[in-house]
Structures are given as C-alpha cells and as structure tokens.
Amino acid sequence: MRVMAQMAMVMNLDKCIGCHTCSVTCKQAWTNRTGVEYVWFNNVETRPGQGHPRRYEDQATWKGGWELNRRGRLALKAGGRFKKLIEIFSNPVLPTLDDYYEPWTYDYETLTNAPLQEHTPVARPKSLISGKDMKITWSANWDDDLGGSAATSERDVLLNQVSEKIRLEFEQTFMFYLPRICEHCLNPSCAASCPSGAIYKRSEDGIVLVDQDRCRGWRMCVTGCPYKKVYFNHRTGKAEKCTFCFPRVEVGLPTVCSETCVGRLRYIGLVLYDADRVLEAAATPDETGLYEAQRQVFLDPHDPRVAAHAEQAGIPWDWIEAARRSPVYALINTYKVALPLHPEYRTLPMVWYIPPLSPVVDAVRGTGRDAEDHGTLFAAVDALRIPVDYLAQLFTAGDPAPVDAVLRRLAAMRSYMRDINLGRAPDAAIPEAVGMGEEQMYDMYRLLALAKYDERYVIPPAHAEQAHELEESVTECSLDYEGGPGMGGSGPFGETSGGAAPIAVENYRALRDRQTSDAPAAPTDKATRVNLLNWDGKGKPPGLFPPAEDGAEDGYRDGAADGGRGGGRGGDKGGAS
Amino acid sequence: MTAQTPSVPLAFQTGTGGILLWVVLPYVCLAVFVLGHVWRYRYDKFGWTTRSSQLYERRLLRIGSPLFHFGILVVLLGHIGGLVIPESWTDAAGISEDVYHVAAVVLGTIAGVATVGGLVILVFRRRTVGPVFSATTRNDKAMYVSLTLTIGLGLAATVAANIAGGGYDYRQTVSPWFRSIFLLQPDPDLMTGVPVLFQLHALSAMLLFAFWPFTRLVHMLTAPLGYLTRPYVVYRSRDTRLGARAPRRGWERTGV
Fold first, then answer.
1. Inter-chain residue contact A497 with B54, CB threshold 8 Å
2. Does the keyword Nucleotide-binding apply (chain B) (predicted)?
3. In B, residues 233-252, which contact A (CB 8 Å cutoff)?
4. What ipTM was reported for this prediction?
5. Tens-digit pLDDT profile for chain B (256 aa)?
6. Paired sense of beta strands A199-202 and B234-236, if any
C-alpha cells in the first residue's frame, strides 16, 4: 500500500443555477490575459448541449484519454510514445480555434469617436486573433439554457446514442447545468501525453500542473486530455490548465470557483488513495465497472492501518485528520451520492458530481402528484428512464444502476426531511429503504442542504515547516524577486519572455499591462492616444492637449514645467509616471 | 594537413581575410551558439518554446510542417555523413567515391526537395494566413530569411556543381576544414579553393548558428527524446526553492 493524498472536489448539480459566477471569477483570476482569451479553466455547460470545445466528449474524433489495447493493457487513445514523436510536427487531432470559438472584443471607441450622424453608432465585434471585424457565431456557452438547441442539440454527443423520438421528448423535459474544471485525475492522460514531461502531478496534494518553464508547446496534452481542459496559450506557445488555485489551497482557502459559488454547491476535501492500485483500477476491463473500481482505490482514513501507512508515507498528521473530516470522502464513499464524470476515459477523475434529482421532481410535480412523497419519487426514478440513462452516460459509462441508487437516496432524504420539517414523526423506513440509518441521513442532509462553509471546505494548509517550499511563498514579499515588478512585460523574444514571475506579481503586472495598453489589437493612432486610467492628474501626458499654436515643442515643454511647479512637491512624483 | 606544414604561419597561405572567414568566424559563431544557448536557457526558459501556430491554421501546417521537419532531419543526417565522417573511413568500408556521390545526390535531392517544398508552404502560410502573420515577430522574419538563405545556397551549390561538372568532392576540402575546427587545428587553406557557392553556404550557415540561440529555433535542442524512456505520469514535489528566485548567496537553506 502506497498512500497518497489528493485534493478533490464534489459538485452538487441539484443546486447549480447556471449563473456562471464561477466561470467569471475564475477567468478574472487566471485567464484574463492575451493568448488565453478563449480559455475557461472553469466553464458551465447546459446539458443537453455541446460543451466547450464543441463536442469534446466525442473521443472517436478527439482521441482523448486512455483505452485498453488488445492485450488488455492501458494505452493512450491518441497513440503511444513513438506515434506521438512521429506526429510532433503537426498534431493530427488538435482542436482548432473554430472548435472553441474565435475570441472577440467590441470596438467601443466608435461609440465616443463617431461624428454626428443620423444613426446611432454601434460597437462592432473585432476579432482578438486577427484584429479584423468578425461575425460572432459561437462562444463558450453559446447553447446556454438550451438556447438554439433545436439547431445544435443533434450535436450533443451523448444524445447521438439515443433515438430521435427520445431526443425530442428529452429536450422538452430535461435540462441541467454541468460546471467543469480540470479533473486533476489520478491517472492523468495529459501528463502521460506530454513529450517534455512538463505536466506533473504534485506528490503532496495530487494537483496536476504545467511547468511553464519546461513546456515546449508540443501540444500533445491538449489531445491527451479527454475533458479538453488543457488549453494552448497561442501567444506564449505554452499549455495552461486549471491549477486548483494552488496558491489559495496551500494556505487553506478554497478555490476561487468554490469561494464565489452562490449556490454553495462545491465541496473540497482530501481523499487518501492507494497509488499502487491506480493502474489496476484504470485498466478494469468493463467500462461500467470503472466507477466501483475507482471507489475501491480510495482508502478509509478512519482505518488505523491506513493512517499508519499514511504516516509512513510522510503525510502529516493534520492532513490525515482533515481526510477524516473530508466532505468529498463522505459524499463519495459514506453516502455514495457522488459519481465521477466520464469514468470510461480511464483517467480516474477527481472532480465528482452529485447527479440532479430536480428533473425527476419536476416531472412528478408536473403530473400533479406529491413530489415529496418517497413512494412517488421512487416510482418516478424507475419510470423516467430517459434522464436516468442520460445521467448514466455522463457519470457511470452507461450503467443506470448507480445513478438509480443515488437518485433514490436523494429522494429519500427529501421526503424524510419533510416529515421532520413539518413536525411529524420521522419515518425510519425511508432511510432504510435506501440502505441508510436515520442519523446518517440527517448528516447527509446537513452536508448537502445546510452546507456550512467549514464543512464544505476542509482544506488543511500546506505545512508551516514547509512554508518556504510553497510555490507561491506567503512568507516573503511577493514582489521581492529578481527584476522586480518594475520590469517591462515583454522580453526580447516576444510575449512575456524573460524570467518567471510569481503568480501574484503576474496578476499585478497583467492588470497594469491591461490598464496601460490601449487596445488588444494595436490601433493605428496608438502613439497619439492618452490613457486617462494611468494618469494621476499631475503634469500633462503628451498628446493630452493639441499642440500649442506657437511652436508645438516649446509650448508643450513650458506647459509641462508649469504643471510641475503648480503641483508643488507632487511634481517630482508626477514626472515619474 | 596542418601537421605537414607546422612551421609556416597561416597568414602566409591564405591571407588575413581567409583567417577571419575560416578560423575566427567559425570559433566566434560556435562560441555564440554554445554560450547563447546557456544564457537563453538561464534567462528565458519561459520563452523556450516552439510557439506553434497550429491553433490558428491546421490545413497547410499538416502538409508543410512534417515535410519541412523530416526533410531537414535527413539533411542534417546527410551533413553529418558528409562533414564528420572522413572519406578514408567510407573508403575503408568499401564505399567508393562514385557510390557515395550517387547516394548523397539521390538522398540529398529527395530531402532537399521536401525541405524546400515544406519551407515554401510554411512561409506562404505565414504570410497569407492573417492570425499566423500577426503572430510573427521581427525576430521570426530575420530567422526565416537566414534559414531560407542557408538552405537555398546549399541547394544551389549542389545543383550547380552537379550540373556544371560531375559534382564537387567537398570531402577533400570542406569536410577536413570542418573537422579541423573541432580538432582545434583550424586549416583555412582548405577553404580557399572551394567553389564560391559552397563558401557562401558555409558562411551563411555559420551566421545562422550564431543567430540560432536567440530565435525560436532553440526548440530543436530540446527535442523530447526523453519521452521514449520516462514513466508516463510524472510526480513532483513542491519546488524546494524559496519563492520564484534563487536564494542570494549566504542565504541558502540548510538541512533540506
């Protein structure tokens, strides 16, 4: 037994309202830069729908993840080492920007610059790739809330597998949201696909990261990830992916997407697992057995034998404690309501989902029956095959039995808690019908419905005695590094070349670059423009006023000098800007 | 070679220009090539990338890029065979000059056509596909000119020699000169009588190598051959370094 710790997440889909707050805050924190305009480390997809990039689940096309070869051994679906190196000059299955979308901005300038005219000026969309006018035809959530799904739903990969009649019926009855981040898999195929070995799994907490200094832009990871959660930064030529907000997690804070989730549907905690059993589980012959196989890889942190092995493996005591209180472990193994996303990709993903019961409840309520009664709900779970089969395609490689079981547990919790809330005697038969005790059912209710902050997020901080090893050191000044924040944003070899900046500084610098640059696609009159956002009101930046009549140069200089004098001691400071 | 005339100063035979071109320049370029890579690796690991433009355009790259890269790899092997391996070795192996020449011309023609064809497609793509062109830096443009010039001169030298006469046996002159550089006994004499196109090819190649560490061509030096032997999934501990910079002297941690 080789015990390792993994930071993992569970999302309760019943509570997701599709507000995209997680996506937006993640974007602000991590990918609000040139080169990654189209990149969403976190995105929210409407199901049924195509996702981002379009139809990423169609592995017959994109060849992501692992498969079993003829000898029953794990092999990368896109080909092994030799094939990768042969194809390195042109990756045959890399999604192009069209499969994501062409990022754009709007030409807001015309709104203020346009001359007086009969019609209101409009801000035209401009491509952030070519800088030219463009027609917007797709985005990261173009089919949000089934918008345009009559035109696009035939491209939902999972729905292609059911008949036309069911598909139409389905669209009228069923919709839910699926927030997605990197799965931080136990058996990551992106890392396995990386020719440079730049993608690694952190041995302390299992977070999968791209070493930006070792990435050479061979692009194989993009193909390798079946969830298409590794993205290529087209400006720096490097791969980027969700970092599980490691600078936050290392100091005990939840990820940005979790922290800002208004539905409080995300749970973060540790899971202990046996690294020796990972490959064996990933190579389970039957795809529908992968859910159970992965669950068997997880170790019970309450087991003293496991704790002893964990200590031997160097896992600190408070981490083992945290693993015992982990909501993720509870939802996966104690209550058994969380399921992995697409286990058939054989990467052993570590962001799990509680499937939504709401479609079933809505259907029952639509018939006028009592949608809180467990008998009715159980019958409905059995009768509503379409949503259950669809959820099974997502979470259990098509096996409806585990999805059934989860939905029945959620239904049981719903009707059991109604009795308590209405002051009636709780019915012990309800939890018993789904194999749970009353106490356990209440605990599950507390975790799922009340979802207190410190119960949702049990994140042991990285160790104080290791604090100096943190990649984002919190014990030193984050601006205190070679070159410092005063260095320019661009080195001699193009976009952001030069030494690595700590992430905190990179955000600072990115913010400053954004505030001081005029437009993403350099406009022709850039040299003569003034950005008032970085003008502190002292002195006159060149170009602020038209040149004076009598000899532009002299007049300007006089003016600047006057401004400096007028500002008193502040004039010195103003000159520096 | 030089061993036969050790007492005669080099300048007597070739003049200062010859020494500058065939002794000083090679060593300067070699030093810039090596030290430049070291410096670039230390200073700009983040910029050390292929800067692939496949995301912008796939169709032309699919043809052009493998054509060029496989072509240039064969060309590289051909140069190793022609420059590094002495003629006496191939003679000893029973390969006559004629056989060698025919093999070199046939293989070289195929590889040369593939390389040039691929390069033409790639340059055409870079110029005509909007996003690719706007992602092209001035450094890239200079690199493309230098690379194209070197390849073009090399091809021209071979074609001219083979059409004008029965080919030029560079293994009597250029190759020994090339080896003499690395044996630290530079012999510029050998290059003085060489056809001008070969001379120009060698000069442009030296300049290209001096420019190399400062361009995107650096990706060649990190060709991921280690991928063939390493385990699929890489596990790494958190960096042991303090923050993002190396500790100052005297402030290194102890006992880790």
1. no
2. no
3. 233-246
4. 0.85
5. 444 444 444 444 568 888 899 999 999 999 999 999 999 998 888 889 999 999 999 999 999 999 999 999 999 999 998 999 888 898 888 888 888 888 888 898 899 999 999 999 999 999 999 889 988 999 999 999 999 999 999 999 988 888 877 778 888 899 999 999 999 999 888 988 888 999 999 999 999 999 999 999 999 999 999 999 999 999 988 765 545 566 677 776 665 4
6. parallel
| Bridge partners, residue A209, by sequence | A200
Among the candidates A321, A352, A370, a domain finishes at A321
Whether residue A313 is contained in a domain is answered as: yes
| Residues 6+ away with beta carbon under 8 Å from A553 | none
What amino acid is encoded at B87 in this protein?
Answer: E
What region, left, alpha or beta, does residue A435 occupy, with left being phi > 0 and alpha being psi -120 to 50 degrees? left
The answer to whether residue A382 is domain-embedded is no
Q: Tokens 């409806």 sit at which residue? A: A400
- For chain B, what are the domain ranges? 11-228
B37 is an annotated ligand-binding site residue: no
Domain end among A288, A321, A354:
A321
Characterise A217 by phi-psi region: left (phi > 0), alpha (psi -120 to 50), beta (else): left
Cβ count near A289 (within 10 Å): 16
Residue A94 near residue B55 (C-beta atoms within 8 A): yes
- Between positions 22 and 61 of B, the ones with CB within 8 A of A are 43-58, 61
Chain Cα centroid distance, residue A515? 26
Burial class of residue A122 in the structure, from the number of CB atoms within 10 Å of its CB (0-12 exposed, 13-18 middle, 19+ buried): exposed
Nearest by CB: B222 against A92, A216, A480: A216
Helices within A238-313 (DSSP H only): 246-249, 256-259, 278-282, 290-297, 304-312
The whole domain housing A230 covers 3-101+140-321
Longest dimension (CA), chain B: 71
Please indicate if the annotation marks B101 as binding a ligand: no
